[in-house]
Design a protein that fits this description.
With about 400 residues, the chain is α+β, with helices and mostly antiparallel strands. Helices cover about 45% and strands about 25% of the residues. The structure holds alpha-D-galactopyranose.
Length: about 400
């Protein structure tokens, strides 16, 4: 298995770098999201799953107050004293944020040697940052023999995103990376923080990611703009209809009111309301193995993300449009925060390679960019590998 090889490599890198052996490895997967986009920070629903690509973290205490982290993928080493509060590079902010938040809560009070290895594309739209946060959190908690709940870990990740990385994101990515089960999809309800599992039923289908290789510089600020637009729309609804605190249960009259006073807010709200309905519809379609319906739901979601939520871009729209010329493509949509990144596509089983060849050629012809394409398998969430002698 590829992940066994990665565990061995992580051990070796750690030993080479720190001249000692770790006693366990903490791993956390990336994620895809089948349906339910931008719903997490709107108390809505989503259906993500972890994928079989991971961040691997080896970690040990040292006798100082110095935290050292080395990333093999980025070939970069970051060191700081426990208690420091500012970092420059993005991945440094994650390490600093996790260590600080854990130190505040659990007073870990020790230097650490950390080695980060991975077979997950960094910044590739499958939540490598959430995977890094969770691999670090689980690893440090395990090292200090601290037990805590999943919801506390997810909250901690969110504090890191909000306070160190300054992205006001929801908890979709962390929930998927932590809670997923092999072969299953997660159904998350962000209103009451409940979740359950459904069988992915993917005997006849394959889920294929196409990375457009587009990374918009403004993606974070645009994401933030959407968060604020939703908050403002809720505030406006609330000032007219006292009981409203999110878009759940907003009726057509209330939507009509919003349309008259804030057209942008109306469009965002309409996307969220319909996207939540699509999560339910997708669950039914998956249960019934109704591939045509699944595909249609994905396409509806894409159109809504393009026209109502306005988070798509030309390259991604092209990837979706041109895919409809491929016979065994059932549907697809932009996935994740938007403004570039990946599409997720539902393909007839065993046609993945043909689809990949087809898309590569079309995309290359049109934009002179080679997309990155991979079929994903649904894996289990973050875990500690204790018996590393077996590797
Ligand atoms: C990014 C964020 C998530 C979520 C998605 C959109 O991945 O990190 O919290 O909001 O965008 O669904």
């Amino acid at each position: 298995m590829e992940s066994n090889k990665l565990v061995q490599e992580t051990l070796k890198h750690f030993t080479d770098f720190y001249s000692e052996s770790p006693s366990f490895i903490s791993i956390a997967p990336g994620r895809i999201n089948i349906i339910g986009e931008h719903t997490d920070y709107n108390d809505g629903l989503a259906m993500p799953a972890a994928i079989d690509r991971y961040i691997f973290v080896a970690i040990a205490k040292n006798r100082s107050q110095l935290i050292t982290a080395h990333s093999t993928a980025l070939e970069d080493t970051y060191s700081f004293n426990l208690g420091a509060d500012i970092a420059d590079k993005l991945w440094h902010k994650y390490v600093l944020g996790v260590v600080n938040e854990l130190n505040i809560k659990y007073n870990i009070n020790s230097g650490l040697d950390i080695l980060i290895h991975s077979n997950l594309d960094i910044g590739g739209g499958v939540s490598s940052s959430a995977a890094l946060e969770l691999a670090l959190i689980n690893g440090i908690l395990h090292l200090f023999k601290i037990e805590t709940s999943s919801s506390e870990k997810i909250d901690l990740c969110q504090r890191v995103e909000h306070n160190y990385v300054h992205i006001k994101s929801g908890t979709l990515d962390q929930s998927a990376s932590l809670l997923s089960r092999e072969g299953c999809l997660l159904v998350l309800d962000f209103q009451d923080n409940k979740y359950r599992y459904i069988d992915s039923n993917s005997q006849n289908t394959a889920w294929v990611l196409v990375d457009s290789m587009i990374k918009r510089k403004l993606a974070n600020s645009k994401y933030h703009e959407r968060v604020l637009e939703c908050r403002q729309a809720i505030r406006q609804l609330k000032s007219r209809y006292k009981d409203i605190c999110n878009f759940n249960n907003v009726d057509n009259n209330q939507l009509g009111y919003l349309m008259n006073i804030n057209e942008t807010g109306y469009k965002r709200a309409k996307h969220i309301i319909n996207e939540n309905i699509r999560v339910h519809k997708m669950e039914d379609a998956i249960m019934n193995q109704d591939i045509v319906e699944m595909g249609n739901i994905l396409i509806d979601s894409h159109l809504s993300l393009r026209d109502l939520y306005e988070v798509s871009c030309d390259e991604i729209d092209y990837l979706i449009d041109v895919s409809s010329d491929f016979k065994d493509w059932h549907g697809g949509r932009i996935m994740g925060g938007g403004f570039g990144g990946n599409t997720i596509n539902l393909i007839k089983k065993n046609m993945e390679n043909d689809y990949s060849d087809f898309i590569k050629k079309k995309y290359l012809d049109k934009f002179q960019i080679m997309p990155k394409i991979r079929t994903v398998n649904f894996s289990s969430g973050a875990k500690i590998i204790d018996n590393i002698k077996a590797f």
